[in-house]
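Listing S7. Sequence submitted for prediction.
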Amino acid sequence: MPAIGPKQAGRQRWKVRSAAVIRQPRRSLGWRAALLALSSPNCPLRAWRDGSHARRISTVNAWTFILPAVAGAGVSAWGAFHPRSQLFGPTVHWADNACALTFDDGPNPQVTTRLLSLLEKHEVPATFFVLGKYVREYPSLASEIVARKHCIGNHTYAHPSLLLLSRQRIIDELNRCEDAVFQATAVRTACVRPPFGFRGPQFYPAARRAGFSKIVMWSVNGWDWNPQPACRVSRRLEKVQQGDIVLLHDGDHRASNADRRHMLEALEYWLPRWKNRGLQFVSFG
C-alpha cells in the first residue's frame, strides 16, 4: 500500500471536515423541519394525538351516564319483578305466625272442586286469586269457593301484564273482575295480586283507587303453572315453613281447563306433613 504524503493527508482531513460541515446542517434542518411540522395545527400526527385524547375524555363522560342508567334499570327491574320488592308500593309477602296457601288463575272445572275437597279434608283454609273471565264462565265454582269458607282475591279479569298499562286500564281490569265475582258470589274480593307478579309504579295507586289496600305476593313459588312430574313441585315445597305465603295454580290464564294433577299430587303429599309439623294455615279474608 503506497504511503500517504502530507498533502494527501491534508486533503483527507479536509474532506472529512467538509463532509461533517455539510452533513451537520442537513441533519439540523431535517429535525427542525420535523419539529415545525409537528407544531403545525394541520399536522396529521397532532390531530391523531388530540383526537385520541378527546376520545378518552368522551369515553369517560359516556360511562358517567351509562353506569347510573344501568344501575337504575337494574333497581327498576327488581322493583317490578321481585315478589318481595316494596319499591313501587307496599305488598304482603309474609304471613307472620302462620302459613298461607294461595292459588292463582282459576276457577278451573277440572281442578278447583277436587282442590277444595282436599283442603277440606285437612281443614286448611286458602285464598283463591281468580280471573274474572273464568268466574263469568264458571260462576258456580266461585260460589263453591266462598261456600267452603275460603277467601277470593282479585287477579284481574283477563290476566294481562300490567307493566305497560295505564293506571285507568289497570283500574278497569280490577273492576271487571270485581263485578264478575260479586255477581257470582255476592261478596267483594278482599285483596289483589298482579298477574305474573309484575307491577310498575302505576299499579299501587291504581289498586288503591279501585278499593284495594292489600297487595299479596309470595315467599315460596311452586312453579307449577306447566304440566310436569309431581316430584318437581314437591321438592320446591320442601322449604315451606311458618310465615310463608305459597304460590300455586289451580288454573291457567291461557286455558280454562288446564291440567293441574301435578299440583294436586304434591299438595296431597305435603298437607298432612305440614300439619304434623305444627304449621298453622290462614287465608287473607
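Caption to Listing S7: primary sequence and predicted C-alpha cells for the chain studied. The beta strands are 100-104, 126-130, 151-154, 220-221, 245-249. The chain has two domains: 49-81, 100-277.
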